[in-house]
Amino acid sequence: MPVLADIPRLDRRLELAARRVVEGLHAGRHRSPSLGPSCEFADHRPYLPGDDLRSVDWKVAARRDRLMVRRQHEERDLPLCLLLDTSASMDWGTPSKRAWAELAVAALAVHALLQGDRVRLGAGAAGEVRWFDQLAGPAGPGEACRRLESLAWGGPGDPAALLAAAGARLRRRALVVLASDLLCEPAGLAPALGALAARGHEVAVLHILHPDEAALPADWGLCRLDDPEGREPARLVDAAAAKAGYDAAMDAHRGACAAACAGAGADRCEAPCQLDQAAVLGRWLHRRARG
Fold first, then answer.
1. What is the CATH classification number for the domain harbouring 243?
2. Is 84 within 8 Å of 66 (Cβ atoms)?
């Protein structure tokens, strides 16, 4: 359970900003498709009777020999949608991927709320998605913790269903961040990511990996490998003998997930859960800020 005092605080200088236009409801710092008075130039249009003369671009007017008005993007708050995979495979490991993801999602929620943005949380597995009302204001961080505490964990993961549910529910363009171990078929992930992008949303994926999952520990010796989601039967293996084949298969899966994200224009951040959330998320936000 994430406790507000334990949530990693991200560097306030690193803004969680959209790279694409978004459609917030309230004034903020993110570029909107709406046109209005702000600091970011959009385009020019011919002057019309009644336009404010202060909006005339006199240099352009001199070149074109006609009055031209500057149009600018109105800045809005960032609608942030956080999607959390609550499948059984996420509740595995020491520390568990679940514990890492809860704190990471809470950290992003608090960071966005402190920026003055609004946050929506969706969570689920096995095709069932739970949605919460939008968070905003000073009460938002504590409420985010309570909502994460209330989640049920278990069942097979279905990140594509989570993404599809977000696409069906979100009415405005948003930044959608999925936190998942992506233990699914990458071929099913690509269309779900692409559908969100086609609707104008920006999508980012926190690909959460446990070190014992990323590379099979050879010192496990003769061991039993279980699928926590029950899709595959348990197997008795010699870890040292199986390591090369397992590691190659996992590397191929990670590569396929990266390709699915890249093909849909989604920003994928690999998140090893043995590392501190603030360090992983800080590097990710810094990379986004550099473009």
1. 3.40.50.410
2. no
Domain that holds residue 142: 78-290
Give the model confidence (pLDDT) of 125-138 as tens digits. 988 899 999 998 88
Tens digits of residue pLDDT in 152-178: 999 999 999 999 999 999 988 899 999
Q: Give me 138's structure tokens.
A: 């000073």
pTM, full prediction: 0.80
Q: How far apart are CA 210 and CA 273, in angstroms?
A: 5
5, 38, 72, 179 from 15: Cα distances, Å: 21, 19, 22, 19
Listed in sequence order, the residues at least 6 apart from 202 whose beta carbon sits closer than 8 Å to its beta carbon are 18, 19, 20, 22, 173, 174, 175, 176, 267
Give yes or no: residues 272 and 224 share one domain: yes
Pair (68, 160) in one structural domain: no
